[in-house]
Amino acid sequence: MFCSQCGAENPERAKFCSKCGAGLGVAAMPTEGAAKPEAESSTGLSANVAGLLCYVVAWVTGIVFVVLEKKSTFVKFHAWQSIMTFGVLTVANLILRWIPFVGWILEILIGILMFVLWLILIIQAGTGKMWKVPWAGDWAEKQISK
């Protein structure tokens, strides 16, 4: 559940925002479209569109938005998650390419995993959700809190 005051993500049953202390409830949820933490990013795009664009060219667009984005924690989260998720998987693919047979099979499987994650993450960011990839999402949250 996102806070309507500051955009922070909170546990589903929370009564108050863990970041700003504002009351959470049905009235505190954003009413327009999907759950948006911020209406606009510092790039001039809506936060949902900017978050979605963080994944378009995997880790490359993640780097672009880490550099450009100054205020939206939603966009920063998706940019860092894109860098970590697709950066690690790209490096793994490049290493496995040099291992005959088993490496080639694993490379194909990682390629399929990357495509499925890419689709899921684009859809989730586009609908305003901060869906976390298990290890990369936690790391991304630490990066935006620095």
Write the SSE topology.
Blueprint: H1 47-53, H2 59-68, H3 73-96, H4 102-126, H5 134-144
What does the largest sheet look like? none
Total separate domains = 2
What is the CA-CA span between the terminal residues?
Answer: 22 Å
Coarse shape: elongated
Which regions are unreliable across 5 or more consecutive residues at pLDDT < 50? 26-36
Helix content: 40-55%
Count of discrete alpha- or pi-helical segments spanning 4 or more residues = 5
Which band does the percent of strand residues land in? under 5%
How confident overall, as mean pLDDT? 85
Would you count the extended β strands for me? 0
Helix vs. strand class: mainly alpha
Outline the structure in words.
This protein is mostly helical. The protein has 2 domains: 1-31; 47-144, no CATH class. Helix content is 53%, strand content 0%. The protein is built from 5 helices and no strands. The chain has helices spanning 47-53, 59-68, 73-96, 102-126, 134-144. Helix 1 (47-53) packs antiparallel against helix 4 (102-126), helix 2 runs antiparallel to helix 3 and helix 3 (73-96) runs antiparallel to helix 4. The chain is elongated and about 55 Å long. The chain starts with 46 loop residues before the first helix and ends with a helix.
